[in-house]
Design brief:
This protein has 96 residues and is mainly alpha-helical. The protein is built from 3 helices and 2 strands, in the order ααββα.
Length: 96
């Protein structure tokens, strides 16, 4: 394995880890009713589509707040699942 191959693999692993960490943190924020933290995991007005919602992240946070207020709440167990990087993206406005 060449140094370039090793470097590419390490970068891919770092990307994968950061993406999984962000997804797990976003779900934790929702489960803990930290809606501001949940929204901060996205860029402004990002689209969100789930089994029960289709709209912006800000509207998703509000819909989640209302849904949890009515007694409906599920915990999200996010495990490393399938992940495939289709192209290398540049992230400019990261938030955590």
């Amino acid at each position: 394995m060449t140094d370039n191959d090793t470097q590419a693999r390490l970068l891919r692993l770092l990307d994968r880890t950061e993406i999984f960490d962000l997804v797990r943190f976003e779900r934790l924020c929702r489960d803990q009713r930290d809606f501001a933290g949940m929204v901060a995991c996205y860029v402004a007005h990002a689209p969100v589509r789930t089994t029960w919602f289709d709209g912006t992240v800000e509207d998703f946070a509000e819909a989640s707040r209302k849904k949890m207020g009515s007694g409906t709440q599920a915990k999200h167990w996010i495990m490393p699942a399938r992940w495939r990087l289709r192209r290398r993206a540049r992230w400019s406005n990261r938030r955590r």
